[in-house]
Amino acid sequence: MRLTAKLQAAADHDIERRIAHRLARLRAERGSSLDALAERTGISRATLSRLERSELSPTAAMLGKLCTVYGWTLSRLMADAETRPPNLVPAAKQPRWKDPESGYRRRIVSPPAPELRGELVEVHMPAGASVSFDASPIAGLEHHLWMLDGSLTLEVDGSRVRLREGDCLRYLLAGPTRFQGTGKRGARYLVAIVQP
């Protein structure tokens, strides 16, 4: 394994460990038991325990359910797992995460910060892969999805939209969403997220 691949693998494990610790702290701050959280999310108590101990890599769907319970965006969870958000975010310091189930990759280009309402996320969705979220983590969350490469089918609020390179879709999150990489290359896109 090349040195850069080893360094990236170590960085990926480190952010997963920090996300796991943050999830445990969020549950503790709310005084919630693993049983209560399992009931609210539909994720088994054993799986939640393993996630919080960093023994299991969370899927995008799991993190989506947990973020919905806590009222956080996934980007905020990832950024909060980092140290204090800086104004300049060098490319090498932008948190990256890969969904072990779908291969979906997410990079927090511009993380949320206490005094700012927006964030910018880059996503790579492999061809044929899909990721679904049951609900918006925050009511009225505004998304601007800009396709950079490939094609994507997005189901949002009961509507299905096919996006190609250069297309931009603006929407408010209210219900479930499903993202699917289509075409031979899958999809690469940016999402600008604005909190209400």
Protein model, in words:
The mean pLDDT is about 85. Strands 1, 2, 3, 4, 5, 6, 7 and 8 form an eight-stranded antiparallel β-sheet that branches. This protein is about 30% helix and about 35% strand. Helix 1 packs across helix 5. It is built from five helices and eight strands. With about 200 residues, it is an alpha+beta fold.
Brief summary of the model shown:
This protein has 196 residues and is an alpha+beta fold. 32% of the residues lie in helices and 33% in strands. The chain is built from five helices and eight strands.
Give the strand content. Answer: 25-35%
General shape: globular
The overall pLDDT, averaged over residues, is: 87
Distance between the termini: 44 Å
As residue ranges, the low-confidence spans are none
Q: How many strands?
A: 8
Number of separate helices = 5
Listing every helix as H and every strand as E from the N terminus to the C terminus, the arrangement reads HHHHHEEEEEEEE
